[in-house]
Structure formats: structure tokens, C-alpha cells
Automatic annotation (TrEMBL):
Ranges where the Response regulatory domain occurs: 561-675
Domain Histidine kinase stretches: 323-543
Coiled coil residues, start to end: 289-316
PTM annotation (4-aspartylphosphate): residues: 610
UniProt protein name: histidine kinase
Pfam families: CHASE (PF03924), HATPase_c (PF02518), HisKA (PF00512), Response_reg (PF00072)
InterPro entries: CHASE_dom, CheY-like_superfamily, HATPase_C_sf, HATPase_dom, His_kinase_dom, HisK_dim/P_dom, HisK_dim/P_sf, Sig_transdc_His_kin-like_C
Length: 680
């Protein structure tokens, strides 16, 4: 009986090798495509957010000029005398504004601020500058804000010229024109984008801003995010925005890792094909020996010895197969085990990609082995952002309450100042919010052997958002100065002796920082070794529509009479509605003179006084009122946030000062401060 291994076993092992090689190649190509998608999605997401910030910055500066225009038009030109004092204020507030000038309807520059560095343009007739005048005239008569390309200025330097047309008395009067250079404001945005490079061109291709030495030509189109910035929605100017990484090294490193992973996969394919060959050969020989032993046993007992030898040979082959299976499964399982461990550790994004590639390749190979040896596959998930309505202060209090027993059991003291202002609700990812502060509080407990843990909460409303600030301070082991700058880097904690003694589950500081960044927040750390650590987290959230609950029911100012003075009718209506909600009877006046006439006819308990008005402004009106020895409560109302304006209001006799746009809760709070007879 021949024991020659059949040739088909060789072909089967070769086929297994080819199939495995094709699978590895498929996984390699798929991983490469996924890496490119991930790379582009990362740059696209970051670039899209950044482009919105840049575009919003541009538009905010243009809107500030439109506010000047609105005042001129609403006052039929009476505001002209305040135009350049307000323009000086705007220049002080907006770093992009280089100067503001008035170009009359004939195209002649008649006024400019600041004057000294720009006086050479006074009297300049732009009608003699053909490329400038034609565009200026055409868009101005159409009522469209005009933005020139990045141009060289007569007085030196370069800037964008933004022309805001002004119409009153039913005809075109001229333009409020500003020279704008956005570099400082753009650099402020760029400080949060140190890993990236930015290039912006105007609508005729002039490069007017670059950040971190961008080199788009060194990157393929698939790794450069390009979009259009539209500085003025009403016009047709489009600026080109390029967003890319500072260099291409990361992508080259990823490509090298992919190639290495493919090589490892091919090696494992060869090992698996050998395992299959030995398995088939051993099974073939075992069957042959079993058949031979059976035949010999039937022939005579004298062949029993040969039968025993054949049986032992079969057992040897079976043991060999078992050993080979073990030898292959052991490194595969080890690779997968370490990959799973590394996935849960604090590692960099690049290293995370390496681990994922290693995990996927080894898992694919082990899955095929497990099809023969009955072992299950490994699965993984992904992160998403939720939008929940919740109270940040209430969530912080709940987390602290959850850990308070553990803190006390460890002999520690917990200090909090959390005021349960639960009426402030936001829209955001509650789960990730909880996860951030659970990680930090848990860290504080873990690394504080004695002393105290302090949790401080505060919030403030800014532009419709609730800015939440929480710091968590402990008296624990602290962090050495040599590692303080690297605590968010992945793997750093794994090398720290203290961290090893406190090893356990959790996302760690690197993941916590990623969650904070995911929620558009910031995290800062202060620490001294053996003295303690303080983490400060700031997170912005969109206020819920129900943020301020119906507090009007607790306020009753019945019998109070108010005079609302504002040259803008809509502003008067809004303020009068706010007052009406708390039972304040109110009367409106469109300017200072009208307000004085109202005061001659009846008495008022409260006056809400606008600052910038035609005929008689708020400062002058308050001076007249106080000169008549009238002690009525006067609250200034203005969008002018400068310290000088507020101090001037107090000097002329205002009792308090509110900033536009008026927040209803701020108004009610200031009334409660000055009127103590509200009913609760």
C-alpha cells in the first residue's frame, strides 16, 4: 500500500495560499482606500469648520460697516456728524479695519479716519481710476456692497476696499468705505490649527493670506480641501480657500505601514497553506495506516505489532497537527490580544491606524483558521455625536453625588460650589459631557491618597450660547513638570510608574481631550508633583429654546410707569413688550426732544434711554432731565460697549447701563436690583 502524498494536496495548499493572498491584497486595497477617505474626511471636516470661521469673521467686519450705514439712512443723514467718531470706535474694536472713509456720490474721498496716515487720499477722485470707479458706481447704484480684490493703496500698503452704499432722501449719497486686512483675525483662528496650513486667494487669484507655509502643489487633490468663501452674499465675489496638513509625512508613513501589513499578511498566508498541507497529509496517512492496520489484524495476530506501530504513527501525526495548529493560533491570538489592548490605550491617531491595520489583518487570518478550528470572529464599533437637551450644572451635581460615597470611603473631603441653576438647559451630547467629567473625577479619586477634591462650576451666556467652565482640583500625587506637556499624548501614561500601579479600565486623558475637542471645548491642566492637579474644562453649548423658563410669573411691577426712548421703532416695541410682561405700563419716544415733552406731561418711575439718536442723543437728554432735578431711575441702553461710553453715561446721570441686544433676563435682573417691591 503506497503512502505517497497525493499531488492534489499540493494543489489544495497552493490554492489556499492564493486565496489568502488575494484576501490580504483585497484587505490591503480596502484599507488603503479607507485611509484615503479618513484622511480626506478629516481634512474636509476641519477645513469646513475653519472656512466657516474665516467667512464669519469677514462678514462680521462688513456688518459693522452696514450698522453705520443703517444709522445714516434711518436718520436721513443726521448721523453724519457721529459717523467718524463711531468709525474710530469700530477701528479700535476690529483689528481688520485699517481705515474708514466717505466717498461722496461723485466718487471723491472727502473724509477718512484715522487721518494722519491716510491724509494723502483726501480729495482723491476715484472716477479717474477706471477699474475702481466703474465697479464702485455700478454696485453702489444697485445698492450692493462692493468688495474690491486685494489692491495696492494710494497711501501705501495693501487691503480690500469695502464700499457700503448709502441712500437717503430717495437718492444715492455716497459710500462708507473701509480698508480691511484680515491677517490678525485670521491668525487668531489659525492658532488652533497648528497642524494645518491655509491659503486664501481673492476672486482674481491674488494670494492675500497664508498660514504655516502652505504648499498645495505638494499634495494631491484628494488631500487638499478647497472651498469658496463668499464674503458678501449679495455680491458675486468668491474667494478660494485651501486647507491642508503642514506636510505629507503622515500619509507617507501610513502607506509604509500598509505595505508592511501586506507583507505580514502574505507570510501568514504561506504559514496557513503549510498548515493545511500538513493537516491533509496527516489525515491521509492516518487513514492509510488505519486501513493497513485493519487489514493486517484480519490476516493474523502476528501483524499486531505492525498495527500498533501504525496506530502510534497516526497518533504522532495527529499530535503534530495539534502542535502546528497551536503554534499558529498562539501568535495570532497574541497579536489580536495586544491589538485589542492597544486600541483601549492612550495612543496617537497615527498609531491607532497602525493598530487597526494589524488588528484587521490578524483577525482576517485568524477567522479563516477559526473556520477550521471553530473559533468566533471579533467585532468593533464607532463613535457618533448625539443632540440632547440637558442642564450642565445638574449633570455635574449628579456625577459628584455618584462618586461622593467612594470619596468618603477613601477618607477624602469633597468641596463643591455647584449652584443648581437647572433652568439653564442646553443642546449637546449629554453622554460625552458625563464621560468627560466622570473620567476627570474618577482620575482625581484614583490618584489622591489623602486630602480633598474640589469641583467648581460656573457658566455664562454669550451670543446665545452657554459657556460652561468646570475645574476639578485634587491634592493627589500630581504630575511631574517633565511630563506635564505630554500627558495628553498617547502611551505616555503607560510609561509612568504611578500609572502602572493604578492600572485599570477607562478612556484616559488622551480620550478625554478628544471628547472635549469633539464638543468644541478646551481643557487645561495645572499640576505639581506630590501637591496635586487641577483640570479646567470649558465647553460651549447652544442654549435650548427653553433655557430661561417662565420667570415672568414671579415678577410683578404693577403700578410702575416707564418711558422707552429709542429712535428705532422695533427696539421700542421689543422693550415695551418685555415691560408689559411684568405689568409695567410703558410709553415710547423716538428721540430726546420727544422724551422731554413726555416728561413735561406725566411722571415716570423708569426711563430706558438709547444713546445714539438724531436731534438730541441720550447723553444730552439725560443731562437735561437731571438738570430739572428729576430723580427718575434712568437706565442707558446702547450697543456701545466701550468703557468711555459707560463712564460718560454715569457722569451725566444714568443709574445703570444695559448693552444691546437686550437680554430679557438681564433687564429683569436690573429692575429687581433697583425696584425692591416685586412680588414673589
Amino acid at each position: 500500500m503506497s503512502l505517497l502524498i497525493p499531488r492534489r494536496f499540493y494543489w489544495i495548499s497552493v490554492m489556499i495560499f492564493l486565496v489568502m493572498s488575494l484576501l490580504c491584497t483585497f484587505l490591503f486595497l480596502r484599507a488603503r482606500d479607507n485611509l484615503q477617505k479618513v484622511y480626506y474626511n478629516q481634512i474636509k471636516t476641519s477645513g469646513s469648520l475653519a472656512s466657516h470661521d474665516f467667512e464669519r469673521t469677514i462678514r462680521n467686519n462688513i456688518i459693522s460697516l452696514s450698522n453705520l450705514k443703517a444709522r445714516l439712512e434711518e436718520s436721513d443723514g443726521a448721523f453724519q456728524q457721529y459717523l467718524f467718531s463711531d468709525a474710530e470706535r469700530l477701528i479700535g474694536q476690529n483689528e481688520a479695519l485699517q481705515f474708514v472713509e466717505w466717498i461722496n456720490k461723485d466718487g471723491i474721498i472727502t473724509d477718512i479716519v484715522p487721518l494722519e496716515p491716510n491724509k494723502t487720499v483726501i480729495g482723491l477722485d476715484i472716477s479717474k481710476i477706471e477699474y475702481r470707479y466703474t465697479n464702485w458706481r455700478e454696485k453702489s447704484l444697485s445698492g450692493i456692497t462692493n468688495i474690491t480684490p486685494w489692491v495696492k493703496l494710494t497711501q501705501g500698503g495693501k487691503a480690500f476696499l469695502v464700499d457700503v452704499p448709502v441712500f437717503y432722501k430717495e437718492e444715492f449719497q455716497g459710500t462708507i468705505t473701509a480698508g480691511m486686512d484680515f491677517k490678525k483675525q485670521f491668525d487668531n483662528i489659525g492658532r488652533n490649527l497648528e497642524e494645518h496650513a491655509i491659503l486664501i486667494k481673492d476672486d482674481v487669484g491674488n494670494v492675500f493670506y497664508s498660514f504655516n507655509d502652505p504648499q498645495p502643489a505638494n499634495f494631491p487633490d484628494s488631500r487638499v480641501f478647497t472651498t469658496q468663501l463668499k464674503p458678501n452674499p449679495a455680491s458675486n465675489e468668491n474667494w478660494t480657500f485651501y486647507f491642508l496638513y503642514r506636510d505629507n509625512a503622515v500619509y507617507k508613513e501610513r502607506t509604509r505601514v500598509q505595505n508592511s501589513a501586506l507583507g505580514v499578511g502574505l507570510i501568514f498566508s504561506a504559514l496557513l497553506s503549510l498548515l493545511s498541507y500538513f493537516f491533509l497529509a496527516a489525515r491521509f496517512k492516518a487513514k492509510k495506516f488505519e486501513s493497513l492496520n485493519f487489514s493486517l489484524n484480519q490476516l493474523n495476530n502476528e501483524l499486531e505489532l505492525e498495527k500498533e506501530k501504525a496506530f502510534k504513527a497516526s497518533q504522532a501525526k495527529t499530535q503534530f497537527l495539534s502542535n502546528m495548529s497551536h503554534e499558529i493560533r498562539t501568535p495570532l491570538n497574541a497579536i489580536l490580544g495586544f491589538a485589542n489592548i492597544l486600541k483601549d490605550r492612550d495612543i496617537s491617531k497615527t498609531e491607532g491606524v497602525y493598530v487597526k491595520l494589524m488588528h484587521n489583518s490578524a483577525n482576517a487570518l485568524l477567522s479563516l483558521v477559526n473556520d477550521i478550528l471553530d473559533i468566533d470572529k471579533i467585532e468593533s464599533g464607532e463613535i457618533k455625536i448625539d443632540h440632547d437637551e440637558f442642564s450642565p450644572s445638574k449633570r455635574i451635581k449628579k456625577i459628584v453625588d455618584t462618586y461622593t460615597p467612594e470619596i468618603y470611603n477613601k477618607g477624602l473631603v469633597v468641596e463643591t460650589n455647584i449652584e443648581a441653576v437647572y433652568k439653564k438647559k442646553v443642546i449637546g451630547d449629554r453622554s460625552k459631557f458625563d464621560q468627560i467629567f466622570t473620567n476627570l473625577i474618577n482620575n482625581a479619586i484614583k490618584f489622591t491618597p489623602e486630602g480633598r477634591i474640589k469641583v467648581h462650576y460656573s457658566d455664562e451666556i454669550q451670543d446665545g450660547n452657554l459657556i460652561v467652565t468646570v475645574f476639578i482640583e485634587d491634592t493627589g500625587v500630581g504630575i511631574s513638570q517633565s511630563k506635564l506637556d505630554y500627558i495628553y499624548d498617547r502611551f505616555v501614561q503607560a510609561e509612568d510608574g504611578i500609572r502602572k500601579r493604578h492600572a485599570g479600565g477607562g478612556l484616559g486623558l488622551s480620550i478625554t481631550k478628544e471628547l472635549v475637542s469633539l464638543l468644541d471645548g478646551t481643557i487645561e491642566v495645572e499640576s505639581k508633583e506630590n501637591e496635586g492637579t487641577k483640570f479646567t474644562v470649558t465647553l460651549p453649548f447652544l442654549l435650548s429654546s427653553g433655557t430661561i423658563t417662565d420667570e415672568n410669573n414671579d415678577l410683578d411691577f404693577t403700578g410702575t410707569k416707564a418711558l422707552v426712548v429709542d429712535d428705532n421703532r422695533l427696539n421700542r416695541i421689543i422693550l415695551m413688550n418685555y415691560l408689559n410682561a411684568i405689568h409695567v405700563k410703558s410709553v415710547g419716544a423716538a428721540n430726546g426732544k420727544e422724551a422731554l415733552r413726555c416728561l413735561e406731561m406725566e411722571d415716570f418711575d423708569l426711563i430706558l434711554m438709547d444713546i445714539h439718536m438724531p436731534q438730541m442723543d441720550g447723553f444730552e437728554t439725560v443731562s437735561h432731565i437731571r438738570s430739572g432735578m428729576i430723580e427718575t431711575l434712568i437706565i442707558g441702553v446702547s450697543a456701545d460697549v466701550t468703557r468711555q461710553a459707560i463712564e460718560k453715561g454715569m457722569r451725566v446721570g444714568m443709574d445703570d447701563y444695559l448693552l444691546k441686544p437686550i437680554n430679557k433676563s438681564d433687564l429683569y435682573a436690573i429692575l429687581q436690583k433697583h425696584f425692591r417691591h416685586n412680588k414673589v
